[in-house]
Amino acid sequence: MVTFVPIETVQYPDEDGKPMAEGDAQRKALTYCTETLSLYFRSRRSDVYVAGNLFIYYEQGNPASVIAPDVFVVFGVNSDDRRSYKTWEEGDRTPDFVLEITSKSTRTQDQGAKKGIYAFLGVQEYFQFDPTGDYLQPALQGMRLQDGNYSVIQPKETAENLLILHSESLQLDLRLEAGQLRFSNPATGEKLLSYEELEEARQAAEQRANDEAIARQAIEARMAELEAQLRQLKGES
Question: What is the pLDDT of residues 23-42, one digit of tens each?
Fold first, then answer.
């Protein structure tokens, strides 16, 4: 006798209980990408969702049908916090953009099983970044889905210590410069900053303003001193 488990009683874990064993380079890249993309799309909270290291369940009733991209972006859904992403609860919307921060230990999955699942789910763009340069050459690579298969995204620009790939989904460039991954605005070339980088830039600007104010005060004091001396000389003549 076959026993059927009602769909509503199926459990979809929010984590697998395994510790995240990423190095500093992977962690920093993950933090930069998720923070920066969240900041960039903050004015579109009603229709853009950015997340990372979150379970995506793509078959209702089958919790084994799950994948957890390092970074992903979904257009057409809101940015509310989620414990996991279930496609059937999101109007069957799947990620438009995925970035895996890869390494020797994850390359088999990133190049094989994950790539196949992303193609099956209709992920339009799949990027891989190897922050330590252990095996992926060049360390940043991208693919775009065409007729159900991924084709390589050709770089916009290559030079020594510089590689630029364009994401049509995000309408942003991904720049690999001296081993560092950064998103940038293709119209201006301006690099997108994380929370920490924005705070550092704010503090630097504030320090410059303070330094300029102090310099102005010193100049004004010196000018007043010279004017006083001139008045004194005129009074003696």
Answer: 888 889 999 999 999 999 99
CA distance 46 to 56: 20
What is the domain extent for residue 112? 7-192
Into how many domains does the chain fold? 2
Q: Is residue 2 part of a domain?
A: no
Task: Between 158 and 221, name the one with better pLDDT.
Answer: 158
Q: Per the omega criterion (within 30 degrees of 0), is the bond before 138 cis?
A: yes
Shared domain check, 73 and 114 = yes
Q: What is the pLDDT of residues 99-134, one digit of tens each?
A: 999 876 666 566 668 999 999 999 999 999 999 888
Asked if residue 102 is part of any domain, the answer here is: yes
First to last CA, the chain: 120
What does pTM read for this prediction?
0.80
1 assigned to some structural domain:
no
Return the pLDDT at 117. Answer: 95
